[in-house]
């Protein structure tokens, strides 16, 4: 086990809504090793993005609140930091690439102005120094005609170019941890591959640790060293990438794997699907949250939430591998 850059312990992020209390992240623990990539996978509504926003200190309060846990970055608990302290950490030590770059880039400022702002804030550079560093970063992420693009507005760039700009902005201050929240979702397949190759290449060059959040197992296979599968605000399986793809153990992980088209499969058969929907956070089933959709559900699953337990060198939350359950369940 390598040195850890991030340790999340028992994180609970709740939202107070008209329908009741939503436990979007419910007692989640994991770590990210230095220089490694942790992939976080699951369907929409599983709590992946709220986990990342909790780490960045961007959960809106109210209606949200961090109800418990620790987020240790370089050994210091981010949940004990003031807003001013978090502003110095965001962008400088922890950076984030969001899902849709057009909503993250300000449409009334040029690409260069937005890069300069980040560099002058965190790196204390002069405007000319920031311009030179900004153009250098655009070249690093393989944007052609970087000097020209520097003075253009976001709407003048393609989706793939805008995402490259977001990566340049995220990496311009050499962060220790890069959080990527579905960075390829809005892009076509060819550009997706280019962006993933770029993130991998830059990780190797800079030694930055990466958290890759996605619902796409193809992306996970491309970039991740370790994989954490989330469902309904909880971790259901945590293993190495090879373990997940060679032998998924939780029924939900197995279902996700079966949904991937196989090149050597029978093309006359329908693609496998996981029946049903992810339950709403304010209307969770009493026992295991996956029980209503699980083809292997047992009677105990209807009333008890299994503990996340070690099995075959990984962590799994399923009564197939443990007889222990959480006393508070989904409460």
Characterize this entry briefly:
The protein is globular, with a radius of gyration of 21 Å. It is 31% helix and 25% strand.
Descriptors for this entry?
331 residues; eight-stranded mixed beta sheet; globular; alpha/beta; 31% helix
Structure description:
With 331 residues, the chain is an alpha/beta fold. The strands form three sheets. It has an eight-stranded mixed beta sheet, with helices on both faces. The chain has a four-stranded antiparallel beta sheet with strand order 2-1-4-5, with helices on one face. Strand 12 and strand 13 form a beta hairpin. The radius of gyration is 21 Å and the shape is globular. It starts with a strand and ends in a 5-residue tail after the last strand. The model has no long low-confidence stretch (mean pLDDT 86).
